[in-house]
Amino acid sequence: MSDKKLTITQVRSIIGCTKKQKDTIKSLGLGRPNYTVEKPDNPCTRGQIRVVEHLVKVEER
Questions:
Q1: How far apart, in whole angstroms, are the C-alpha atoms of residue 1 and residue 18?
Q2: CATH number for 23
Q3: Domain count of the chain?
Q4: What is the pLDDT of residues 2-41, one digit of tens each?
């Protein structure tokens, strides 16, 4: 098990995005620009980030 965490910050609005991207933002626990969440660093989270990489900023902890 990895103890690494990812800090994910939404930097752009989801207006004009596809339904898949909007659903992914919601499942990550985000919703508005400048919201920040901390998630475990695993393949599932990395896959979600890849879908919305143009909307978020990711930092490893």
A1: 33
A2: 3.30.1390.20
A3: 1
A4: 689 999 999 999 999 999 999 999 999 999 999 999 999 9
Rounded Cα–Cα distance for residues 26 and 56 (Å)? 12
Residue bearing tokens 């989801």? 14
DSSP secondary structure letters along 5-24: EEEEEE-S--TT--HHHHHH
The residue assigned the tokens 């990395």 is 46
Please write the tens of the pLDDT for every residue from 40-56: 999 999 999 999 999 99
pLDDT of residue 1: 52
| Residue labelled with tokens 């930097």 | 11
Domain that holds residue 36: 5-60
pLDDT reported for residue 3: 83
